[in-house]
Amino acid sequence: MIDHVSVAVRDLDAAARFYEAPLATLGMSKLREWPDVSIGYGKKYPEFWINKRADMAPIAADSGAHICLRAPTTAAVNAFHAAALTAGGTSDGAPGLRAHYYKNYYAAFVRDPDGNRLEVVTFLND
Asked: Has residue 102 got a pLDDT over 60?
């Protein structure tokens, strides 16, 4: 079982401004911070970290790496996607049913301003 994940970002303050609203739609808030180094978000403990890597090269669009976060409802998936776009992210797949993954798989995909690919998913009732 995975305990936590992290993504590298070039500008920690800008990334924090981006991630605050989308993660809030999943019930996460900033729980831990090492100034100018790292910020951890979560519900009870830091589950999702952003780590400053100022000299990081741009992330290739075809890197294949992505992180998927669980949402409790389709409304939360929709809200995460909308909040990410409002905060400066780009859509990598609008919210919707993805029956080719699984018959009840409802997800959305975004890229943060650094190019990290994020998915948020919920499973509809059978």
From this structure: yes
